[in-house]
Each structure stands twice: as C-alpha cells, then as structure tokens.
Amino acid sequence: MHRFILHKALGMLSVLAIVAVMVFVLTRAASGDPISVLLGDQATAADIARVQAEYGLDRPLPVQFVYWLREVLQGNLGESIFLQRPVTQALWERAEPTTLLSLMAVAIATLIGVPCGIVSAVYRGRAVDQLFTGVAMLGASVPSFWLGLVLIQLFAVSLGWFPVSGYGAPDAPLAERLHALVLPATVLGLLNSALIIRFTRASMLDVLGEDYVRTARSKGLGEGTVVLKHALRNALVPIVTVVGLTTALMIGGAVVTETVFGLPGVGNLVVNAVLRRDYPVIQGALLVIAAIYVLINFAIDMLYAVVDPRVKVG
After folding, report:
1. Helices 87-122 and 127-141 sit at what angle, rounded to 10 degrees?
2. Which of 18, 24, 84, 88 is the most buried (most CB within 10 A)?
3. What is the pLDDT of residues 70-110, one digit of tens each?
C-alpha cells in the first residue's frame, strides 16, 4: 500500500509540474500585455515599463517562471494584477458557486446515467436500449451554451420558475442559491450523463454475460437481485471511474455554463482573467483545477479496493 501511494504521489507531482510549465508558457505566448490593458490607451511607454517592473514582468521568462514556481511551492499563487488581491483569496471567494454547481451536476448526471445505463444493458437491442443510446449520443453532441439558452428561455423566461442568471445576493440563504443553480446544474448534468450511460451500459453488458450471472439466474433468483446484487457490484469499477472523471471534468467544464448563466464562479473568474491577460489568476486557477483533477483520480484508485476486493493496490 505504501509503495502504491508513493508511486501515485510521484505521478501526481509529475503531472502538476508539466501543467505548471504548460500554463506558464501558454499564458505568455498569448498576444496582449496585461499592463497595457490595465493602464489603457493613454499610458506612456514609461508608465508601462514602470508597472511591468513592479510586477516583475520585465524579467526574462525563465526568471519569471522560477520565481513563480518558488512562490507556488510556498503556497502563494501570486497577486492578481487587476483585482489587487492574492489569487488564493480570489479563488476562495469564487469557490462556493463552482463547488455547489459541480456537486449538483454530478448528482444529476449519476442519477440519470447509471440507471439508464443499467436498463439499457438489461434490455439490450430493444426499444428502451435504442432510446437511451440515442439520448447518450445526443447529449454528447449538444453544445452546453445552446442547451443553457434553451432552458433559460423555457423555464426562466416563459415559465418563470428559475432566475435567468445570477447567484442571489451575498446574504441570500443557501436554499435561494441552490435554486439559482438548478438550471446550470441541469445543463451540465444532462450533457455529462451521456458518458456515464455509455460506460455503465458497456460495463454491465460485459458482466451480464459471465457464468456466475447465469448461475444466479438458474438458482431462481429474481432479475432485480441478479442485476443489482451480482452484476452491478462487479461492474462498479468502470462506473466509479467515469463518475470520478466526470466530477473532475465538471470543475473545468463549468466555464461556459457559468458564463451563460452569469454565475460568479471560478470559471467566470478565469474567463475575465483571460480577457484581461491577468497572468497570476490564469496560472493559479488552472494549476488548482489540475490539482483537483489528479486528486480525484487518486481517490478513484484508492476506492477500487473498496468497490472490488479483487483489485489489488499493492
């Protein structure tokens, strides 16, 4: 177990190191200068040079990267050029909407994807299987912004059941904020349930053809017991994997949805940072999202031994 944890930890650090290099290089490769955007068109070359020196942007790129990496290793993601406060604070202030949105969306995707995948596998080749397969293909191809606009028009504008955008006032109760997240969470949940349906169906089909399933049926066990107790338990490893990966993808994929619904989350923060060329925010946010992604993958690996005792982590 210790060897497994050490191996995974080294892999996580390697991935984060690669992400750090790529994020730094890509932000600097983008056209535009944050200081020019900050000072506006009336700024002189002397003003731009002075502010660049204040933020260390006049140094060679390798020096900037080493300095930034040293600060990251000390737990400091830098200070936002435009927000004038630490990136960690800015991310923490935006964390609640994105976290709640992701959790609600994962719950919706799982509650739709797993049962539909099971039913599709049990009734393979029948009308219900074709229906759910078609829904999965449709969900994988529909753009999130289009579905979001459709739901806004139907449930917010026409019926008035939900707010068009926003997250409620700062002092709004949690119930009001969750109510504002229903539509965006539904968008993410519906679209990501397609992947869960496909993986659940494929995993269940593999298990339903095994000898022990036929033996259980020959003993006179009910179909529900055979499917849920014998087949589903042995098909859980791929299902847990895809649900975990979906959870990680929700956090990074919430950018478009938060923009469409006007949510003050991390995704909206990243979009504004990209438009302003706010290097510290872009780098810090993407690095945190990557860290969450690899941590979720690590948690999935650890759950394998719990879900399926046949899986050995040593």
Report:
1. 160
2. 24
3. 888 888 888 888 888 888 998 898 888 888 888 899 899 88
